[in-house]
Amino acid sequence: MRIDPTVTAAAVLPLVGGPANVVSVAHCMTRLRLGLADPSRVDEEALRSLPGVLGLVVDDGSYQVVLGPGAVSQVTSALEALLAAPTDGEPSDAARGELAGELAARGDLLREERRRRNATPLKSALRRLANVFVPLIPALIGCGIVAGVNGLLVNAGLLPWLTPALAAVASGFMALIAVFVGLNTAKEFGGTPVLGGAVAAIVVYPGVAKLTVFGVTLSPGQGGVLGALAAALLATRVEKWCRGRIPDALDVLITPTLTVLVAGLATLYGLMWAAGAVSTAIGTAANWLLTTTGPFAGLVLGGLFLPLVMLGLHQALIPIHATLIEQQGYTVLLPVLAMAGAGQVGACLAVYVRLRHDTSLRTTIRSALPAGLLGVGEPLIYGVSLPLGRPFLTACAGGAAGGAFVGFFAMLGDRVGATAIGPSGWALFPLLAGNRGWGSLLAIYTGGLLTGYAVGFTATYLFGVPDRPRPPA
After folding, report:
1. Closest CA to 384 of 349, 346, 348
2. C-alpha to C-alpha distances, 461 to 298, 398, 405, 471, nearest whole angstrom
3. How far is the CA of 436 from the CAs of 98, 143, 409, 413, 441, in angstroms?
């Protein structure tokens, strides 16, 4: 369902307490994220019922309105424009400031209490990791699709005059991904982004091949995104240490110099070597897991991914995916994890078939199903399966079955991977890669999706649909 972003933004604003209650506005791939001064002013029921709103998630005091890919960026822009543009009859800036201050003071206690309850060290660390890597996903998707198209052209022997150009377009970002990780890391952890990028750039600098550390000659790119992350974190710590000790008159010269020098030398003589060992171990472990325990590994990964998404713990996998893509050209974990979405779709289809009398729920499923088929699972999770309870568990069973299917072929030597993170479901088809031809990859991944759909549907139809009273005629 296509929505008017301006109309949707205008409808959302009063339901979240009005302009004075909105402290911050941001968005990810599917969710409008609102920081609110007083969360108690939100009319959740009305907000959930708005056309185009696919769900509502409250996380650490942040209200996240699920709108789906594409629509979310447009609604965010429209909402920012509404917040920035004064209208007739609005209070003065001074009055608005006083009201905002009152709301903020009243909401601080509620927000702080919720933050203490939810912001465990693990969740905070995962959230910050996500803030580093999630902004890179659009470039990973775009470059991954270009790489996939280029691979098909090369294999088919078509357009040989164009394929070198496509290879350059697809590979440029990946060659410098460490720099972008460094920029985002420094920005997230309170450092100067360009200094984080400058230190991270050492990881991909060709000249490192002239250095030998622990008896091993360094190679450009060694340590990958993990090395860049560690280098930028260290640079941020060094920069903060300098800022508090160096006189203002010398700060502009000494702080950046010491930051780059200390963190740069530590990167060359320790971090690159250590991160390289960790990256190699991640790649070896992922391949061993699927080739040795394929069906079992697929069953566990596919079955547990929906709970990980619900808890926000799936963010820990982002740097692992990025490391595998940088190291091998694709991540073998994503197609297995994508089966969780297939189980979810199958489960919600069963709910749709069984609960014919529940018009409201069937309308929600019809609205959220296209996004679910394309791998955007939040609308179905928060709008259908999780509120009902049992369908969430049977959806996990479908994901486990689909994961076991893909894992079985991995154990036979047919590795199916993805050249980018973010999409799943049908949207993952253009990003498939592996050690076999595209036809084999297509068949295995399609078989996994169909298995997930079928098992999720059957398990939910037989065991997962709760008894709901039929509405009066």
Report:
1. 348
2. 23, 12, 21, 21
3. 64, 21, 11, 9, 7
DSSP letters along 122-150, please? HHHHHHHHHHHHGGGHHHHHHHHHHHHHH
Known catalytic residue: 28?
A: yes
By C-alpha distance, which of 206, 149, 148 is closest to 419? 148
Q: Where are the domains of the chain?
A: 5-119, 134-284, 298-464
Overall pTM surpassing 0.90 (yes/no): no
Which SS3 state, helix, strand or coil, does residue 3 take? coil
Tokens of 350: 């069963």
Residue 379: left (phi > 0), alpha (psi -120 to 50), or beta? alpha
Residue 131 C-alpha from the chain's centroid: 9
User: What length is written for the chain?
Assistant: 473
CA nearest neighbour of 449 among 351, 367, 341: 341
d(CA 289, CA 56): 36
Read off the pLDDT of residues 345-383 as tens digits, 9 standing for 90 and up: 999 999 999 988 888 788 888 878 888 888 877 778 877
Q: How many alpha carbons lie under 13 Å from residue 401 in its C-beta half-sphere?
A: 23
Element (H, E) at 417: strand 416-418
CB within 8 A of 193, min separation 6: which ones?
Answer: 183, 184, 186, 187
What does the angle CA 55 – CA 426 – CA 323 come to, to the nearest 5 degrees? 90
Q: How far apart are CA 201 and CA 195, in angstroms?
A: 10
Is residue 209 predicted with pLDDT exceeding 70? yes
Query: Tell me, what's the pLDDT at 409?
Result: 94
SS3 content of the chain, % helix, strand, coil (to 5): 75, 5, 20
Continuous H helices in 216-247? 224-243
Beta-ladder partners of 55: 66
Q: How far apart are CA 336 and CA 293, in angstroms?
A: 13
Q: What CATH number has the domain spanning 5-119?
A: 3.30.1360.60
The Cα–Cα gap between 153 and 161 comes to 11
pLDDT at 227: 93
Which one is predicted more confidently, 88 or 396?
396
Contacts for 36 with CB less than 8 Å, ≥ 6 apart: 16, 17, 21, 22, 23, 42, 61, 63, 107
H or E stretch covering 35 = strand 31-36
